[in-house]
Specification:
By secondary structure, this protein is mainly α. The protein has helices at about 5-15, 15-40, 70-85, 90-120, 130-145, 150-165, and strands at about 50, 55.
Length: about 170
């Protein structure tokens, strides 16, 4: 009889190695999906402003922004189910999700800061005042991902918690 590969992984890695693997997997999945939606959102033609023939991009809008689609939420829910199945302990899942949420938010903000600075052209404002341009770049990056973070963590959390309660 063939063994399930999900039951073999904890024996190979040990408890602490498994916790780290799941947290980094959650960070990778969440960050990849958030960055993908962010780039797709800002590459749409509707976000460009043309002033005197120059193409400019708004780095933040209060009424629209990047968001997850249904397939992304399903992927996050599935990764939560798999991570909850491997961790099995509610305390490990809860603290792992807090760590994964914080580190993925940090990863997304760093990527968005570079994207706003280089791809959207905020480095041109550095000639006037470097520190103010850098401050606004990071501020816009944080604003863009503050609104996407809760919507992505909810299915991840629900999948992990449902699996923990089913296995308990």
């Amino acid at each position: 009889m063939q063994k399930c590969w999900l039951k073999i992984i904890p024996k190979l890695l040990g408890e602490s190695g498994l916790n780290l693997l799941i947290i980094f997997a959650w960070i990778a999945v969440f960050s990849f999906l958030a960055i993908f939606r962010y780039v797709c959102f800002y590459e749409a033609e509707s976000h460009f402003i043309y002033i005197d023939g120059t193409k400019l991009v708004r780095p933040y809008s209060s009424f629209e922004g990047p968001s997850f689609q249904e397939i992304d939420l399903g992927i996050l829910f599935l990764s939560g189910l798999i991570g909850g199945f491997l961790l099995k302990d509610f305390e490990k899942v809860l603290f792992g999700l807090i760590k994964a949420g914080f580190l993925s938010f940090l990863t997304d903000v760093v990527y968005a800061s570079f994207f706003i600075w280089f791809a959207l052209g905020f480095k041109e404002f550095a000639a006037v005042n470097f520190f103010i341009a850098l401050e606004w770049t990071v501020f816009y990056a944080v604003l863009n991902f503050v609104r996407i973070l809760p919507m992505g963590l909810i299915p991840l959390f629900l999948g992990a918690i449902i699996t923990c309660f089913v296995l308990a």
